[in-house]
Prior knowledge:
Elements: H1 2-60, H2 65-96, E1 105-108, H3 109-126, E2 130-137, E3 142-145, H4 147-163, E4 170-181, E5 184-193, H5 200-203, H6 216-219, H7 227-237, E6 241-247, E7 251-262, E8 277-281, H8 285-297, E9 301-305, H9 308-320, E10 327-330, H10 339-350, E11 356-360, H11 364-374, E12 378-381, H12 386-397, E13 418-422, H13 426-437, E14 442-446, H14 449-458, E15 466-470, H15 478-487, E16 497-502, H16 507-516, E17 520-523, H17 528-538, H18 542-545
Parallel strand pairs: 2-4, 8-9, 8-10, 10-11, 11-12, 13-14, 13-15, 15-16, 16-17
Antiparallel strand pairs: 1-3, 3-7, 4-5, 5-7, 6-7
Helix pairs in contact: 1-2, 2-7, 3-4, 4-7, 9-10, 10-11, 14-15
Bound molecules: adenosine-5'-diphosphate (ADP).
Amino acid sequence: MERTDRAHVEELERDNAALRAALREAEEANQAKSRFLSSMSHDIRTPMNAIVGMTAIALSHIDEKARVQDCLSKIQTASSHLMSLVNDVLDMSRIDSGRMTLNQEDFSLADLLHDAAVLLRPQAAQKEQDLAFHTGGIREEHLTGDPLRLRQILVNIIGNAIKYTQAGGSIQVELSQRPAGADTVWLDFSCRDNGIGMSQEFLGRIFLPFERVRSGAVSKIEGTGLGMSIVKKLVDSMGGQISVESREGAGSRFTVALPLAVSRKDRREPALPAGQTVLVAESQEERAGQIMDCLRDSGLEPVRLDSGLEAVTRLTEARYEKQMPCALLLGQELADMQPLDLAAHVRQLAGASFPILLVSEDDWALIEYRATRAGVSAFVPCPLFRSRLLDTLSSVTAGSGENSSTLGGPDEDYSGSRVLLVEDNELNQEIAMELLGMTGVQVEVAGDGAQALEKFRQSPEGYYDIIFMDVQMPVMDGYEATRQIRRLSREDAGGVWIVAMTANAFVEDVRQARQAGMNEHISKPVDVDRLLDILRTQLKPKAVKG
Ligand code: ADP
């Protein structure tokens, strides 16, 4: 009897302890929520105050143009801050309430990193920082997972490194992979900066919402204090790990490991002239090593050259012996001259059709004019990936090696295919037509969603191969037009490939595009490589069509 009583008391005590723990947890959660709400109201009030105050000032000085202009630009800054705050809070609440679902789709790590680099490079360039991507450790480029959320993680961390590093600083991003089981890899990502760093004490709080280092330097930099807690939640929900090391004044290093499935989709390997020599002119060790490895793995015979002089000598001999290499890959650095100067020499020496490829961290749009004038035939963008290097090499060495351009060569001749370009802005129309036109594809134009719908409705079945659809347009926007096209009762309504072209690359915009029934998304300004990729996957070049 006594034993049963004791057991009963013990049981009651256990229940009590569990109840107390649950109560404590609930209280803590409640406190966290109150803290969150109070920080949020505070953070919303700050830009709101600026907007209200500046509007009042502008109104009372309405005739002083300079003053009004100054007020408006401050209002603009405060509103964009408010907007990012609201977006972040929405994102947080979506994740917290379990409304965020992670996509499982095939994606290319190369595309993802190029998109991220397009966003981040201008910010680093503005601060004259050295932003470098080291991708030599990537083996599997085609993965399955949620590319938008992955990009959000990378962009947030690298974006912070840029923000919290002084002008002229350095940001080194490294990506590599380790096997994690059958058909899965760990993607290891690290971002090291030599910026302002953080104290050990702050590192304990970095993943809590609204926490920011309290210092003069940080308070001048725009931020919501939500980015890192969103990143932490995303990494957790993907089953990954994140850690930070940092020293005040010395810099920080963020490390993320994420498990990702390897995509099993079959892919065509680029056709390359096996066994042929490719010259690699690059004096920077790591970059040269990565290029050499890629080429060797694909059955080519790379020869490394450190200087422009070596390259010229080698090519002169090769010409004399009638044993020309199949291409020259130019890197970022040479011991004795600028890569583009070497391109000019080689172009003279080797003739108009010899393929010269430039591997560069720079934005192609910025260097295209100088590079093509110097004689460069094709561009391999960085972050450097095997697929991009080999595809470009294959496109310039295909057949007789006579092609000297990646755009509009016989490989990219899509005449006979038809696309509908839906875009309201005339300048954008012109640019897109110019880019598309170079591939021989026939382009028809609609000025808004309603016109596009009408053109599609009037066209015979299978008439358009691809529809490039702007999102924001008068009369009918791109989402609505897509929904209506998809709803038409005709064979090709569901199947026609619709590509959203938008200036916004927020996760939600992309998701909305998908929900409306669009198949792909490219951001504006349009990246030629992305455009060509889409044409390549959807259309058949004329030669293949027969
Ligand atoms: P924020 O919007 O303020 O950038 P985050 O949540 O992204 O918010 O980061 C939280 C805080 O962590 C930042 O305000 C900054 O104080 C600190 N921090 C984040 N990344 C770095 C970094 N690379 N170097 C120094 N401080 C950083």
